[in-house]
Design brief:
It is a single chain. The chain is α/β, with parallel strands linked by helices. The protein has two domains: 136 residues, NAD(P)-binding Rossmann-like Domain (Rossmann fold), CATH 3.40.50.720; 101 residues, UDP-galactose 4-epimerase, domain 1 (Alpha-Beta Complex). Helix content is 44%, strand content 14%. It is built from twelve helices and nine strands. The strands form two sheets. A seven-stranded parallel beta sheet has the order 3-2-1-4-5-6-8, with helices on both faces. Helix 3 crosses helix 4, helix 4 packs parallel to helix 5 and helix 9 runs antiparallel to helix 10. The longest helix is centred in the C-terminal third of the chain and has 15 residues. The radius of gyration is 19 Å and the shape is globular. It binds NADP nicotinamide-adenine-dinucleotide phosphate (NAP). NADP nicotinamide-adenine-dinucleotide phosphate (NAP) binds next to helix 1.
Length: 287
C-alpha cells in the first residue's frame, strides 16, 4: 500500500507521518508538500517527497500517481480551502486513489463556527466524488491555547470569551494517531465519519486553574465580551481578522460547539487522549 499525506510539513502532518512510520515502511509513504526543501528530513528517513501545491492540479496528479490511499490534511489557507480541497479530491479521483481520509471539523455538519463552511463543502465534494472516504471530524487542538497560556503567565490573568463552555480538546498527537490508524487500516472504511475529541472537557476557568497549579501563581480566568476580547488580542499585536476570529470561536465554545463526549478518539487510538495537564506542562516548558 502507498499512502500519500498532504500538509506533510505541517504540525499534524509530521506527527501523522511519525505514527505511520511505526507500522508502514517509509518507502510506502508519500509526503505531498508545497516546498520539498522543507521535507529534507522526511526524505532522509526514506519517505518519498513529492511536490504538490493544492492550487496546482497538474502537480497534484503527479504527486498522487500510483497512490492507493490519501490522507488529506485540510489546508491552512482559510478562505481558499474549498477550491484547494476540490483540486486534491479531483486529482485523487483521476489517479484512482482507493481511499481518502479527510481531516474535518468536530460536528462539521451542524457547527456554527465560521470555519465549518469549507469543511462542509469538502465533505459534500467527497460524497459526490464516488471515492471511498472516511471523515475525521477533529475537535480543537489543546495546543491552540499555547499563546493564551504564555500571555496568562505574563499578565497574571487568562482572558477569553468562552464563558463556562466545555471544550473537549485533545493534543495534535492524538488526532495524528487517529489519522494514521484510519489511513493504514482496512480499505473499506469501518466507520465513515468519526467525531474526534478529548476524553475530558475543560472550561477556560479549568485551564486557568491548571496553569496556576503548575506555575504556583494565582492566575484567574476573566471572561470578556466578544468585542473586548477581540480588542485585547488586536492590542497584543494580532491582525484584526485573526483577533475577531479567535473571539468568535470562543463565543462558539461558550455555546458548546467544541464539546463532545462520545470518546470516539480514545476508542480509535486505543488509549486515553492526552490530559490537559500534559499539554500545559509542555507549553510551559517551551516558554
Ligand atoms: P499547519 O502546521 O499550519 O499545517 C498546514 C499545512 O498545510 C502545512 O504543511 C502547509 O504547507 C500546508 N499547506 C497550506 N497551504 C498549502 C498549499 N497551497 N498547498 C499545499 N499545502 C499547503 O496546521 P496543523 O496544525 O498541522 O493543522 C492541520 C490542519 O488542521 C490545518 O491546515 C487546518 O486546516 C486545521 N487546523 C485545525 C485546528 C484544530 O484545532 N482542530 C487548529 C488549526 C488548524 P507548508 O508546510 O508549506 O506551510
Amino acid at each position: 500500500m502507498t499512502i500519500a499525506i498532504t500538509g506533510a510539513t505541517g504540525q499534524l502532518g509530521r506527527l501523522a507521518i511519525a505514527e505511520l512510520l511505526k507500522t508502514v515502511p517509509a518507502a510506502q509513504l508519500v509526503a505531498v508538500v508545497r516546498t520539498p526543501a522543507k521535507a529534507a528530513d522526511l526524505a532522509a528517513l526514506g519517505v518519498q517527497v513529492r511536490a504538490g501545491d493544492y492550487n496546482d492540479p497538474a502537480a497534484l496528479d503527479r504527486a498522487l500517481a500510483g497512490v492507493e490511499r490519501l490522507l488529506l490534511i485540510s489546508s491552512s489557507e482559510v478562505g481558499q480551502r474549498a477550491a484547494q480541497h476540490r483540486n486534491a479530491i479531483d486529482a485523487a479521483k483521476r489517479q484512482k486513489v482507493k481511499l481518502i481520509v479527510y481531516t474535518s471539523l468536530l460536528h462539521a455538519d451542524v457547527s456554527t463556527l465560521n470555519l465549518a463552511d469549507e469543511h462542509r463543502a469538502t465533505e459534500q465534494m467527497l460524497a459526490e466524488s464516488g471515492v471511498p472516504h472516511t471523515i475525521l471530524r477533529n475537535g480543537w487542538y489543546t495546543e491552540n491555547y499555547a499563546s493564551s497560556i504564555g500571555a496568562a503567565v505574563a499578565h497574571g490573568t487568562l482572558i477569553g470569551s468562552a464563558g463556562s463552555g466545555r471544550i473537549a480538546a485533545a493534543a495534535r498527537a492524538d488526532y495524528a494517531a487517529a489519522a494514521a490508524k484510519v489511513a493504514s487500516g482496512p480499505l473499506a472504511p469501518v466507520q465513515r465519519i468519526y467525531e474526534l475529541a478529548g476524553d475530558t472537557a475543560f472550561t477556560l476557568a479549568d485551564l486557568a486553574a491548571e496553569i496556576s497549579r503548575q506555575t504556583g501563581k494565582t492566575i484567574p480566568y476573566r471572561d470578556l465580551p466578544e468585542a473586548d476580547y477581540a480588542a485585547a488580542l488586536a492590542g497584543a499585536g494580532l491582525p484584526h481578522w485573526l483577533a475577531g476570529a479567535l473571539a468568535s470561536w470562543d463565543i462558539g465554545a461558550s455555546k458548546g460547539v467544541l464539546f463532545d463526549d462520545s470518546k470516539q478518539l480514545s476508542r480509535l487510538i486505543g488509549r486515553a487522549t492526552t490530559p490537559l495537564a500534559t499539554t500545559v506542562s509542555a507549553v510551559l516548558k517551551k516558554a
